[in-house]
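Backbone-to-sequence.
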């Protein structure tokens, strides 16, 4: 039963989203009937996903064979459960936030349709059991999330969506080249999971801790150097979705034009699809030992450091609030990538912790920005002087999650950054072992410089004339509660990180 529920968790939101898209508007008597149906769809889809996540590791499902030895194959492991868990959390909170925010947007039904479809595709990505299945859902993720970017239908939104599409596909095709190469040197595994046919099937390119690469065959072929090039192309290709330099430009272009709930989903979750693909490629396909000490590791780490510092610097200079947060995402995703490039257990743990913490924090930041823009109509970071006295709960939540992103105790950010810095020092990479921690420190200072001024101006300066005249108040509860929950989670995870650390340590134990 659990094996079939894997498919239900993927297909259900996709079908419901598709039905919702094609239903004529006249079916819904008013907006409240649309929201009721959508709300029920959100909750049911999330509950099914939670049921699958809570199931035992090792549940598998083979849907059908693409070609001999390469099926569309799903498997539950702890890594997939972590990513699926944060997808469900952000999906629900940003989704209910959107019920208020989208009231002033057109084509509301279309937004909810693709929001649901994207959730289903992300479940498929998290539960993918082999490289080809993951790639299929990775491509689908781009296609079904693009309407969230293009939603406004303006010229800027269309151009941003096309940029997102072009960059994502270019990166995916780079990764596809690497997949073709790895196929030639993939070990074959026998899997006796719950197949639809009920028979055992040889699986190629199935995710295995430590990698499936047949190194003996690779060495014998003399293509070791070419394999390193192929793996590097996969890392860079999947890094496009994670906003890694030099393919980061789609992020600050897409976020200002997308609705705030879509920005929260993009920055908190969809960019993590690139991170998940990197982890699967390096740690479950080729193995960390294969890359350790090679030029690929060095180049990967250098790209991460460059992106980290560049993103923070651009965010510090940026005046438009949502665009500033987009550059911040570029920087913070590179924290994760830097940790992965160190190829040791400590840095790996820091990266996975930052995946979770960043998803919570950055979703809260984008929802906070969306609430401010929705309530006031202002878009620049310097436009909210004195507003903290008008909206204390919203501004305190913004301040708390900002402290989390900077890495100030007792918020969760300090924990992941500690692991990342320690992992860099343990890596033994010449120069980069200390450049990495230095870059993290510089980025933290820049993060304080571009996030905290909004709180300082909001709380400590007198409201401007427009704020007094309009008598701005807190956003509606349906907008405010998701932000409060995420802010509370930022502090709670800082006080009680032990269960997560133990889970991540158990994952790392199988990889190193």
């Amino acid at each position: 039963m659990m094996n079939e529920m894997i498919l239900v968790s993927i297909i259900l939101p996709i079908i419901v989203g598709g039905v919702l898209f094609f239903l004529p508007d006249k079916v819904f008597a008013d907006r409240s009937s649309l929201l009721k149906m959508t709300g029920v769809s959100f909750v049911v889809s999330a509950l099914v996903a939670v049921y699958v996540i809570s199931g035992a590791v090792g549940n598998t499902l083979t849907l059908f064979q693409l070609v001999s030895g390469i099926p569309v194959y799903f498997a539950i492991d702890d890594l997939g459960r972590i990513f699926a868990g944060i997808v469900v959390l952000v999906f629900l909170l940003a989704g209910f936030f959107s019920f208020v925010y989208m009231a002033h947007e057109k084509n509301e039904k279309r937004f909810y349709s693709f929001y649901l479809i994207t959730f289903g595709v992300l479940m498929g990505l998290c539960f993918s059991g082999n490289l080809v299945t993951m790639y299929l859902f990775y491509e689908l993720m781009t296609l079904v999330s693009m309407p969230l970017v293009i939603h406004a239908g303006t010229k800027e939104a269309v151009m941003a969506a096309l940029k997102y599409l072009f960059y994502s596909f270019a990166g995916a095709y780079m990764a596809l080249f690497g997949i073709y190469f790895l196929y030639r040197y993939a070990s074959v595994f026998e899997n006796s999971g719950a197949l639809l046919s009920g028979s055992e099937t040889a699986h190629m390119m199935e995710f295995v801790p430590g990698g499936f690469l047949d190194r003996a065959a690779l060495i014998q072929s003399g293509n070791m150097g070419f394999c390193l090039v192929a793996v590097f192309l996969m890392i860079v290709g999947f890094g496009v979705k994670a906003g890694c330099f030099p393919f980061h430009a789609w992020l600050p272009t897409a976020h200002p034009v997308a609705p705030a709930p879509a920005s929260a989903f993009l920055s908190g979750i969809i960019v993590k699809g690139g991170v998940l693909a990197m982890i699967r490629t390096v740690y479950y396909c080729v193995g960390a030992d294969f890359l350790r000490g090679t030029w690929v590791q060095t180049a990967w780490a250098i790209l991460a450091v460059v992106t980290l510092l560049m993103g923070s610097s651009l965010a510090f200079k940026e005046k438009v609030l949502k665009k500033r947060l987009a550059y911040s995402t570029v920087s913070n995703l590179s924290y994760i990538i830097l940790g992965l490039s160190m190829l040791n257990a400590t840095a790996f743990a820091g990266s996975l912790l930052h995946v979770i913490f960043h998803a919570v924090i950055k979703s809260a930041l984008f929802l906070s920005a969306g609430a401010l823009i929705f309530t006031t109509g202002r878009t620049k970071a310097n436009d909210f002087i004195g507003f903290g006295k008008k909206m204390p709960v919203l501004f305190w939540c913004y301040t708390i999650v900002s402290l989390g992103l900077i890495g100030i105790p007792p918020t969760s950010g300090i924990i992941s950054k500690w692991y990342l810095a320690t992992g860099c020092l343990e890596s033994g990479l010449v120069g980069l072992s200390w450049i990495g921690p230095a870059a993290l420190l510089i980025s933290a200072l820049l993060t304080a410089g571009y996030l905290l001024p909004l709180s300082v101006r909001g709380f400590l300066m007198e409201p401007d004339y427009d704020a007094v005249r309009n008598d701005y108040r807190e956003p509606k509860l349906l907008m405010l509660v998701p932000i409060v929950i995420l802010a509370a989670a930022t502090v709670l995870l800082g006080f009680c990180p032990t269960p997560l650390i133990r889970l991540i340590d158990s994952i790392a134990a199988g990889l190193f």
